[in-house]
UniProtKB/TrEMBL annotation:
Gene Ontology cellular component list: cytoplasm
Lineage per the UniProt record: Bacteria, Bacillati, Actinomycetota, Actinomycetes, Propionibacteriales
Superkingdom of origin organism: Bacteria
Recorded coiled-coil stretches: none
Molecular function as annotated in GO: carboxy-lyase activity; hydrolase activity
Alphabetized UniProt keyword annotations: Hydrolase, Lyase
InterPro entries recorded: ACMSD (IPR032465), Amidohydro-rel (IPR006680), Metal_Hydrolase (IPR032466)
Organism (species): Kribbella solani
Name of the protein in question: Putative TIM-barrel fold metal-dependent hydrolase
Length: 252
């Protein structure tokens, strides 16, 4: 399976999200134990402090296992250097997508400074994965509006609406051609509805592994096991865990 939402440890920030400083070897050990063949790895420090250094460290982390880990970097969208950093990240650093966290990074998806950044990601056939599910700045409707301004950019709702906004996440995914939905931290009853009603090629899965106080990532293992209780078909499972994420990781 491909886990489309994991994080590096926190090297520079101290937050409520924890982040034991595990190494790449340890992380791949966790992936093996949970049956995860490949993982999209997002920054942890960059959620709070989106600096070029956070992209450097992320790139270094995933480069240890290039066939197992795919890095998505981040940028401070209001900085004048943001477009150049987006170019550096997908060029020199070899990162394959952009992660944004409008809530923690403090901006709105409607801000026009996002447009040239999105154009960079589109030009390399990359993916934009956004945190979602927490108003005011991270609703599926706001993220869908950005996706509609950039119809060639593939945009992923990183959390399938979480607890409060999964219905909106589902509707926006149904109605926005280039919007995809990652079930990650979405409650199980919502995951079941999403899988019954969303276009089957648009649903992917993530554990959020890495935001943990234990290198063993126990809660992420529990999220993988949870899938067994969703009552889905083998075809749905294969699409969500293999075919759909694989397609998104191939350049568009
Ligand atoms: Zn996350």
């Amino acid at each position: 399976m491909i886990d489309f939402h994991t994080h590096t440890p926190a090297w520079e920030t101290a937050t409520w999200l924890g982040g034991t400083p595990f190494g790449a070897d340890e992380f791949v050990g966790f992936m093996d134990s949970a049956g995860i063949e490949r993982a999209v790895v997002l920054s942890h420090d960059g959620l709070f402090d989106p600096t070029p250094e956070s992209n450097d460290r992320l790139s270094e982390f995933v480069r240890a296992y290039p066939d197992r880990m795919i890095g998505f970097g981040t940028v401070a969208v209001r900085r004048k250097t943001a477009v150049a950093e987006a170019e550096r990240m997908v060029g020199e650093l070899g990162l394959r997508g952009l992660k944004l966290h409008p809530w923690l990074q403090g901006f709105s998806m409607h801000e026009r400074s996002l447009d040239p950044i999105c154009e960079v990601i589109t030009s390399v056939g990359g993916v934009l994965l956004s945190h979602d599910g927490t108003p005011p700045y991270s609703t599926a409707g706001q993220i869908a509006a950005l996706a509609r301004r950039h119809p060639k950019l593939r945009v992923v709702l990183g959390h399938g609406g979480l607890h409060d906004l999964w219905r909106e996440a589902l509707v926006m995914t149904q109605e926005t051609e280039n919007l995809y939905l990652c079930i990650c931290g979405t409650p199980p009853y919502a995951a079941r509805h999403i899988l019954q009603e969303a276009p089957p090629h648009k649903v992917i899965f993530g554990t959020d592994a890495g935001l943990s106080d234990k290198a063993s990532q126990d809660y992420a293992v529990a999220r993988v096991k949870e899938i067994d209780g969703w009552g889905i078909t083998d075809a749905q499972r294969h699409a969500m865990l293999v075919d759909n994420p694989q397609r998104l990781l191939e350049p568009a």
